[in-house]
Amino acid sequence: MRFACPNRMSAVPSVFLAFSAVFIFALYYSRATNPPIVITDQPIPTPVPSVEIATKYNLMEETFGENWAKEPADKYLAPSYCTIEYANRNQLQQDHPCVIRLIRESYLRQPAPKNVPYNMNHSETIDPSDGQSKEILRLLHNQTNGFFIECGGFDGEFLSNTLYMERSLDWSGLLIEADKKVFTQLISRNRKAFTSPACLSTKPFPMEVVYNGTAETLGAIIEEKDVKQPQSQQKDTENIYKMQCFPLYSILLAIGRTDVDYFGLDVEGAEYKILKTIPWHKVNMKTVTAEWNHVTEGEPGLTRLMESNKFTKTGLISNYYTREFVYVQNSFNIYREK
Q: In 3-state terms, what secondary structure has residue 178?
C-alpha cells in the first residue's frame, strides 16, 4: 500500500528555505561583528605605537618606568648594536644610553684649556653680540661663572652672544654649529666651551636631515617636504649635505649639565620645533632668547609655547642682524624691577 502525503511534502521545501535564510544571515552577521580567528605558526607582532603620538618627550621612563637608570645600560641595547643608523632608524629615546654614548664619542669636543690663548680675528672687540649679551647680563645682574648654550654658534666670534660672558665673566658652556665649514673656524678659536658639530633635532629623538649651508649665517635644515628626492639617495655637495641631529636634552646629558643660565637659539626657522622637544621638567633654564621671524608659528605661537612651559616674555631684541624675543623662567624672579 502506498501512502501519499502531498500537503506535508510541499511544506518541507518552504520550511527548509526559511531556516537556511535565517542561518546564513546569522552566520554573516557573526562574521561581520566578530572576525574569524586565524591560527598560524608565525608569531603575531606586537603593534609599536608611533613615538610622536604615544609620547610627548620620548624619554626612557615613559617606556621602561622611573627606575630604568638603576639597570645596566646594556640591558636596553648591547654596545655592539649601538650605531647612529640604529639610533635614527629606531627613534631611540632622548636619554637612551646609546644616544648619550654616540654623542660623547663622535659629536662632542671638550673645551680648550684655559691656559690656551684665544685665536680671534678681532680680539679688540669686547662684545660682538647684537644685543643679547647685554640684555641677558642685565637680567642676571652680571652673573659670573654661569653656563650657556648657543645654537648656532657660527664661527665662535662673529655675532657671538656668549663670547663676552666667557672671556670677561668666566662662563662656560656649549656651542652647537651644523655648518661644516664654519665649525672648522669655530674650533680654531679655542673657546672655553664644549662644541658640537651637529644640529638640534626637531623631533624628540635623533635624526638625520639635509642641511643647506650655502648662505652660512642663514644656514638651515631643509624641510622634508622640500627635499626633491629620498634622503637615502641625496648626494652631499659642498654646501648641501646630510647632517646628524640630536635633541638638545641628549647633548646636555652627554656633557652632564641640565642647569643652564642662558640658552640662545638662532637656527633660521626651526626654533619652535626644537623648543617643543625639550622636557622642561628635566632641565632648569633661567633665560632664553629665540629668533622668531622665520618661525612658521610666528611670535604668538612661540610665546604660547614658552608660556605653557612657565616662561614669561620680557623683551624684544631688534637690531640689524637680530629679531629675537627674551624669555625668563617664572620661578626665577631676579629680572623683576624693584
A: coil
C-alpha 242/C-alpha 221 separation (Å) is: 9
Per-residue pLDDT of 219-247, as tens digits, reads 566 666 555 555 555 666 877 889 999 99
Q: pLDDT tens digits for 37-60? A: 333 333 333 334 444 444 689 999
Three-state secondary structure readout of 306-322:
HHHCCEEEEEEEECCCC
Cell numbers placing 337: 624691577
3-state secondary structure of 227: coil
| 222, three cell numbers | 631643509
Contact between residue 204 and residue 58 where contact means Cβ atoms under 8 Å apart: yes
pTM of the predicted structure, to 2 decimals? 0.79
Question: Is 320 in contact with 330 (CB distance < 8 Å)?
Answer: no
Cis-peptide into 213, omega within 30 deg: no
Q: How many CB atoms lie within 10 A of CB 98?
A: 23
Residue with cell 644616544: 99
| Cell representation of residue 106 | 663622535
Gap between the Cα atoms of 154 and 322, Å rounded: 14
